[in-house]
Design brief:
The complex is a heterodimer of chains A (112) and B (116). Chain A is 0% helix and 59% strand. With 112 residues, chain A is an all-beta fold. The chains are: A mainly beta (112), B mainly beta (116).
Chain lengths: 112, 116
């Protein structure tokens, strides 16, 4: 069964600290893996998209990694800011289809 | 500004009263899709459309209808809403040409629907 699992479900950190969110998937055949940020009351916004051949991609203070062998991805947030408080959703795309498999997200709260 | 616009943002209705949630995008995207988001569950796809007059069922299509008469618009129709359709709904769009499998989805800001 195609699944995307994220951990932890929720996370609280202090402003300025780093954190890492995890995503494990069992999706096959794999096309790409996406990370989205969803602020409360808003639609998700794309952070990164990685294909099979990419093992890291950055977007400002956000760095995503992908290990296609172990089917794991992580999103690392450096020097967190209050505006990083949001849900982060991992999404895996099936190869050569329009099908996206969504994780349930990690809710991050950054406190001053 | 490139955007996906949904209306209304909030909607409270009663069981059985037909409603339509509108979605419009200004990016000339071929692909449009509707999702619902419920606590503890990931986004689940309701319907999607690859282009004008082409629509397909997603994972949870029961109780919903869509139409794609124009490229920019993709309304979601609930003919007879029921309480289990109370949810947060998102419309999204993206490119759908041969090079677009790595194109990101652009989401609207959601419609929170309550059916009593």
């Amino acid at each position: 069964k195609n699944q995307v699992e994220q951990s932890p479900q929720s996370l609280i950190i202090l402003e300025g600290k780093n954190c890492t969110l995890q995503c494990n998937y069992t999706v096959s055949p794999f096309s790409n893996l996406r990370w989205y940020k969803q602020d409360t009351g808003r639609g998700p916004v794309s952070l990164t998209i990685m294909t099979f051949s990419e093992n890291t991609k950055s977007n400002g203070r956000y760095t995503a990694t992908l290990d296609a062998d172990t089917k794991q991805s992580s999103l690392h947030i450096t020097a967190s800011q209050l505006s990083d408080s949001a849900s982060y959703i991992c999404v895996v795309s099936l190869y050569n289809t329009d099908k996206l498999i969504f994780g349930t997200g990690t809710r991050l709260q950054v406190f001053p | 500004e490139a955007q996906v616009t949904q209306n209304p943002r909030y909607l409270i209705t009663v069981t059985g009263k037909k409603l339509t949630v509108t979605c419009s995008q200004n990016m000339n995207h071929e692909y449009m899709s509707w999702y619902r988001q419920d606590p503890g569950l990931g986004l689940r796809q309701i319907y999607y459309s690859m282009n004008v007059e082409v629509t397909d069922k997603g994972d949870v299509p029961e109780g919903y209808k869509v139409s794609r008469k124009e490229k920019r618009n993709f309304p979601l129709i609930l003919e007879s809403p029921s309480p289990n359709q109370t949810s947060l709904y998102f419309c999204a769009s993206s490119r759908a040409d041969e090079s677009s499998y790595n194109s990101p989805l652009h989401f609207g800001n959601g419609t929170r629907l309550t059916v009593t």
